[in-house]
Amino acid sequence: MASKCLELRSEQLHSICLAFAPRILFKAALALWEEDLAPSTTEHTSINVIFFGTLAKDFSQSVRQGDVVLLAEFTIRKSPSFLRDKLHPCQLEMDDKDACVYVCPLAAPSHVPSSSEAKYTYVPLNNVKHKTVVNVYGVVTFFKPPFPSKGSDYCSALKITDQSDVKVSCNIFSKKLEDHPVIIRVGDIIRLHRFKAEMFNDSMTLLNTYGWSAVTFDGIIDSAVTPRTSSKSFHFGESDKHTVQELRRWAASQSLISNDPTVSLSSVQPGMYFDLTCQLLAKAVMDSRCILLKVWDGTKCEHPLLNVAVASDALEGESTVAKDRMNLTANVLVYDNHMEAARDLKPGTFLRFYNLRSLLQRDPDQQPDQPEHLSFHLHGGTTYGRGLRSLPADSPDLQSLKSLLEEHVDLDEYDEVNDGTLLDIWYTPPEAVVLPNDEEPDREGPSYTVRTCEHNTQQLTLARVKRSTPPLSCHVRARVKKYHPQQLYQCLKLFCSKCKTMLDVPDDSAVAKVFRESARENQPCDEQWAATSSASSREPGRTISMHISRDMAGEGTHMQLIFVEGTTLDEICVLSCDYKNLVPVRSENGRMTLMDLTAPFLFSGEKRYYGCKQCSLNTFENHVFTGVETWDEQAVARALGVQLMQYGLLIQFELDDGTDTLEALLWENAEKFFHVSAVDASGSQDLQDKIQTIMDTIQPTDSSLEKRPWLDLCLSVYTVKDNDRKKICYQIINTEIREE
């Protein structure tokens, strides 16, 4: 059968582009003219054409209504939709490698189609008839964000109205969340094309049909008329803009648009149901029915917020410690049918929760007399529109939110200690006063520790210590009830003595990412002061370069400071076995510079040294690379303008002596306590195992408090400021493990 000119009839046909993996299906109804058709088939003036693969994509981006197209090398097959769509009993499939299509525009395309190119008739909602397919505009009076239906699709449910003051329900089913209309709040304007009207329970309902489309607009009168849609191709002209503006004015006169649709965290009270606009900071899957979303809106809640415990390696996203401290982070627990949408969210996304609930809840570790904390729950179901959705970054609703967030933009530049109770651990305890003797009863049993302080006084009860006024030093005899962190690798910290910043040691995945990005973007640098040697890596196109100062070229490798460019983390770890001082670098505008200080600035054997992002200058001066007798981490840091961060061990003990309990930090005395150097422990599994063995002895697994060893401890009691309030802290000093 010969195929001749095929003309797209703009007055009755619409192009439809549907995405399928791994192919794209483009289906269009075309008017077919064929001279040699049999009389029995000439009544069928339209036929389906199906495009596959890249041809579908190219065609959908090129064709316009009214264009003339020519098809070649197609395959003719029986149409499975013949009885339903009443079109030609055959269909044309453009799936052969030789298939091609020619598009002949009747007029030069423009960015926005004019009204002559695409005319749509819109039906007022009071004129919608049963069993008709219509195009309508409406103001959203109620909606439910997309939720899983009983089948394989997602469903969006909404109600709309227009100047006729008739309310119509609408249900939209689609497999992909991104295909659903982006409705942010009641009062938004929506345009629906090709929706079928059906009577259900004596009320009219609109259902999406084949080739449907939905475009939404903000309902605020003075906001820009910007369409929100995932479709790459849609018609929107001056008449559409006029319709949106008319609906906005009418909706405002009917009070259909709320001027304050959401509640800020600073205004939330226990027991409220409310909408919250916020930014996602981090998330963690708790179990098969619950996911944790850590969010903020830049305002401070007046009630203490519940801190949901989660392992650091289970948390995806940025650190929230500083925000937690300031009561800025809301921990939202999302349940059941909302989990799938929550799983797909990326940290940094702007969100809106609908029908979120706030509840007072007690932390499992809290004492009965301590105040309850505020928690947030997005329960399962869709009652009252309950749900959540991401917001477009350019949404007008986000302007005030972004301004608030910018005020706190530097809060989490560093991953600080992941425990709100360790606020001021870097404060040096003040000069302490030795508390006089006390009628302390003797406690039998050997001690697992020994005090090394110079003063001599009997130990006090913990109850007496808590009643005492700081500053003071005292002796106690107690057992360890519990300790944090339970994952002891997290007790290794990095501390800047200049700005008092403390953060966790970055894990290998974060460091490896910095190296990968640097290697991928690397362009070898050329410094006059450096002698360079380069070699190709195993990856095509990547070069590894090693640079040394020309003044050091004659010295032994143990004396050299070697700058390494273009390596991965694994590669520089291998190199550090043979070279003592390796500095990873990258090039910037042809000049050498340090990598992001998330990565170590120096590799020395098994040890890695980090710099403080805030206090480092990151300079390269040729003259400072000469005249150094020994290159250690201090000398390298000075030469590079880096503020060296010190390794430290930090553990919080909960002590119990039968009279009371108190929480005491082991920080400044930690290396002496364990007989372990923190920097050595950072690169030695044996030393890490030694710390673990000591802790297992202090608090044996599954043991009762009565069976744990006594510890003789020297405590420093002092105060620090916490949000303009004085807080009493306890720190273990002048104490070490008794070595056998």
What coarse outline follows from CA principal-axis ratios? globular
Relative helix content = 10-25%
Cα gyration radius (Å): 35 Å
Described by strand count, sense and barrel closure, the largest sheet is: 8 strands, mixed
The parts where pLDDT drops under 50 for at least 5 residues are 1-42, 107-117, 412-428, 437-442
**Total helix count?**
13
The end-to-end span amounts to 97 Å
What structural category arises from helix and sheet content? alpha+beta
| Proportion of beta-strand residues | 25-35%
The number of distinct β-strands equals: 37
Mean pLDDT: 78
For the structure shown, list the relevant keywords.
alpha+beta, 740 residues, five-stranded mixed β-barrel, globular
Write the layout of secondary structure elements.
Blueprint: E1 6-7, E2 16-19, E3 24-32, E4 46-51, H1 53-62, E5 68-72, E6 75-78, H2 82-85, E7 90-94, E8 100-104, E9 133-148, E10 154-161, E11 167-174, E12 189-200, E13 203-217, H3 238-253, E14 273-287, E15 290-296, E16 316-317, H4 321-325, E17 330-335, H5 339-343, E18 350-361, E19 373-378, E20 387-390, H6 399-406, E21 449-451, H7 462-467, E22 472-484, E23 492-495, E24 502-504, H8 508-520, E25 530-536, E26 543-549, E27 562-565, H9 569-575, E28 582-588, E29 591-594, E30 602-604, E31 607-609, H10 633-640, E32 646-649, E33 651-656, E34 661-666, H11 670-674, H12 678-682, H13 685-698, E35 711-722, E36 725-733, E37 735-737
Parallel strand pairs: 4-7, 11-13, 17-19, 27-28
Antiparallel strand pairs: 1-3, 1-5, 2-3, 3-4, 5-8, 6-7, 9-10, 9-12, 10-11, 12-13, 14-15, 14-16, 14-18, 15-17, 18-19, 18-20, 21-37, 22-33, 22-35, 23-24, 23-32, 25-26, 26-27, 28-29, 30-31, 33-34, 35-36
